[in-house]
Every structure is written in C-alpha cells, then in structure tokens.
Amino acid sequence: MSDELDYVPEDVLKEVLEAEREILPRRRRRMKPYPSSRDLVEAVIEAVRSFSGHPDGLPEYVLRILEEKGFETRHVTIKRIWRTYEALVRRGVIGDRLGVLEPE
Length: 104
Known about the structure:
single chain; mainly alpha; 56% helix; rod-shaped
C-alpha cells in the first residue's frame, strides 16, 4: 500500500515543478530592517563627525548613512533625527558642531 503512495507519475511531477518555478519568483523580497533608536544614535554621531555644510543637510546625510548600512529609512522623520541630535548634545555625548541649539 505504501508503494502506491510513493510513486508519482512523471507528468504530474513535471507539472508541479513548472508551477513552483512560476510561483517562487513572485515572492516578495525580504524587507530591510527598520533602524532602532540605537542605530539612529550611532548614525547621528557618525554624521556629526564627518558632516560639513549647512545644518539643513544633516538629516539627509543621516538617512544616507542609515541606507548604506542596509536600513529602511522610509519612516525615519527629520524631526526624529533632530530630536536625537538635541538629546545627544544636551547629554554631552557630542558637541553642538552645527551651532543650532541655544545655550541653556
């Protein structure tokens, strides 16, 4: 009885393999990971060290760094980048190289 179940006709096997070839390429590619807060902090620190230019260009530079590291940056906002920058300056982790924060 089990011998009958083990046998697969050649034409059926061929059909199944062809159908798999058509289905498999349609799978969605794996999405890039979303950057965590720690990833954003590291990117901001790296950006501040190497950025030169007008402060308005910093968020784009941070996003480029994150993308180069393989992260999906679609939902990382400019406000979040500036909030992270401000928190790092206020904690003394980095200096205000861009001169955008008012002294307390």
